[in-house]
Amino acid sequence: MQKKFTQNTFNLTTQPIYNLNMKKIQKQLSLAIAACVVIGGLESCGRAEGNFQGREYMPDMAHTVTYEGYTYGYYHNNRWGGEENYRQFYKDKIQNAKPLPGTIARGQQVYHYQDTEDERTRAMNEITQNPIKPQSDEELKAVLERGKNLYTIYCAVCHGEKGDGNGTLYNNGSGPYPNKPASYISADFIKNGDSDGRYYHAIVYGKNVMMPHADKLNHTERWEVIHYIRSLQAAANQTKYDLAAANRGKANVVATDSTATAAKPH
After folding, report:
1. How far apart are CA 129 and CA 118, in angstroms?
2. Model confidence pTM above 0.85
3. Domain range spanning residue 14?
4. Are 224 and 147 in contact (CB under 8 A)?
5. What are phi and psi of 49, to 5 degrees?
6. Which ranges in 107-196 belong to alpha helices (H)?
7. Does residue 225 sit within a domain?
8. Span 39-83, pLDDT tens digits
9. Domains contained in the chain, number
10. Which DSSP state fits 95?
């Protein structure tokens, strides 16, 4: 008699085998996926050495499509026209690029006066207050110390340690410089309420044979030097350069006979 199998009989006899095979397949699939992940991770994070640049995982996250200033960032998947085309673009438009007219660097203080005698006179009339106004004796001392350091580096070689124009280059006429530089303690610089704009304009543009120092002293440093020059004038005039004098603006000392020796100014 032939044995007949019903649907229930088939399910009962084949279900254990089916479950066992599925578990094996799932386990093998999991191992294969894990192996791919490990191998892919090792390959994508390959160490760069010698001529091998290493491999990158998801390189679009590291190589931007946009151009970056002063950065050579060619990447073939993000560029059109080839490497030579990009190299030429980088050379012409990035390496040799100049700022657009009117561009102002971050933090730059714009000086609204031109390098002419009329503009120099205008600066002298309009710039009458030093923006650095110490609020304590300690602040004033720190300002004068910084100003002295900068003056010694950039100014004393011509104008002298005392501001009398007898620097190393002149040295009482025996130095290599034939003409005596300006004496800041002369009556010409102290009389008639001489304003700080005269010094600031000369620092920016220079005067006569004095070269511009705008590239050497920033906005704050120029005013610190001017504070120190005022202190030299006060010392020559035998007066004290205190908080009141430092915050007064215009001339902080009054010319006396001791500062009456005039010199041709820068």
Report:
1. 20
2. no
3. 1-57
4. yes
5. -160, 145
6. 117-126, 137-154, 156-159, 187-190
7. yes
8. 766 665 556 667 766 666 666 666 666 666 666 666 666 666 778
9. 3
10. I
